[in-house]
Design goal:
seven-stranded mixed sheet; globular; four-stranded antiparallel sheet; GMP Synthetase, Chain A, domain 3; Rossmann fold; alpha/beta; 356 residues; Alpha-Beta Plaits; 31% strand; 3 domains
Length: 356
């Protein structure tokens, strides 16, 4: 039955981090389910946190807000990995269990610590037991790399496949995680960027992948033209299928090839908005974004990595310098913030920038 409770409202990208932190502080009300609304997740609390506790949450998720919300009581407690493995692993290994996993469609992707590698099959079966919607468990077997931004995986439990259908904000995406990069942790960014688009705009998505930015924009705004570029033939093939699957073939146009050449030959001066989700090397294409933007100006959504001792301000300064070298000017930064933590001392950062 419904119950009113104190809660923390945070963007979904910070949800897992705040849930883990609330558990550590003994503040999460585990008898209540989570509540999601408009890209945010509400984490139920057993009481109102103190100012010191609130400060800890805000440090981890600057947009965290304390709100009273209505939650549904759980019919039964979720079975956790610790529950499933309590009698099967020694306590020192239970402490090493991963606290987060990515779920793409019905595939769970997990990073398994070295000390748990001998028990990866056991861990995979426990994940299937704890997450009934998951049919396949993949372990990361390397870093994202190469021109096509892919990584290797090992099947540790369930059906031996890397392809699935992922649903997000009313769209469906055919995804092959071994052949084309896709991160469910960027779902809030897909929605956030799409919400800024205006009817009649022309959008150039320089590194579209399977289309999570392009397809959502095209579906939401029928009068918007979206040129979705990618150099990876497998990503391009999936992108074309997703355009058809979501019925946006009238205004989303997939293009296979190198973004620099395509913009130079076909799209120079056409864009009201450019999306640059290639954080490993987007800085090498800032001049391409400048070329794509209309002469009167436009908005660029730039994603990059900041690794300590580097800073967001330093990234903004570098971005401004490249823009000026390309013959354009930064009118103003609309937004500059961390999107997610990607490694110790490393964050993925987004810059929303208006160029003239």
């Amino acid at each position: 039955m419904p119950k009113e409770s104190f809660s923390l409202r945070v963007p979904k990208i910070f949800g897992q981090k705040i849930i883990v932190l609330a558990d550590k502080l003994g503040l999460r009300d585990k008898a209540l389910g989570f509540h999601e609304e408009a890209g945010s997740i509400f984490v139920p609390l057993v009481r109102q946190p103190t100012k010191e506790e609130t400060d800890v949450f805000v440090k981890e998720a600057p947009e965290a807000k304390l709100e009273v919300a209505v939650f549904q009581e759980r019919k039964q407690q979720e079975k956790t990995l610790e529950d499933a493995l309590a009698d099967l692993l020694p306590s020192h290994l239970l402490a090493s269990l991963p606290h987060a996993l990515d779920v793409v469609g019905d595939i769970a992707i997990v990073e398994i610590p070295a000390e748990l590698k001998p028990h990866e099959k056991l861990l995979g079966e426990a994940i299937l037991q704890a997450h009934r919607n998951v049919k396949t468990v993949l372990a990361k077997a390397g870093a994202v790399g190469g021109t096509y931004r892919v990584r290797d995986f090992t099947v540790v439990a369930g059906e031996p496949r890397t392809r699935t259908v992922h649903k997000e904000y009313g769209c469906q995406y055919q995804v092959d995680v071994a052949k084309a990069y896709f991160s469910p942790r960027l779902s809030h960014e897909h929605e956030r960027v799409a919400s800024q688009v205006q009817e009649g705009e022309t959008v150039v998505d320089l590194f579209a992948g399977v289309g999570p930015f392009s397809v959502l924009i095209g579906k939401r705004y029928p009068t918007v033209k979206v040129y979705a570029l990618d150099i990876n033939p497998d990503a391009y093939a999936l992108l074309k299928k997703n355009v058809l699957l979501n019925r946006v073939q009238g205004n989303v146009f997939p293009i296979l090839g190198d973004a620099r050449q395509i913009v130079h030959n076909k799209l120079a001066g056409t864009a009201d908005r450019v999306i640059m989700n290639l954080p490993e090397s987007a800085s090498e294409f800032v001049d391409v974004a400048c070329q794509a933007v209309k002469p009167e100006g436009g908005v660029v959504h730039f994603y990059g990595f900041v690794r300590l001792p580097d800073t967001v301000d330093a990234m903004k300064s570098r971005f401004t310098g490249v823009v000026e070298n390309a013959g354009r000017k930064v009118e103003r930064f609309l937004l500059a913030r961390a999107v997610r933590e990607t490694a110790p001392y490393e964050q993925q950062v987004v810059l929303d920038v208006r160029l003239v």
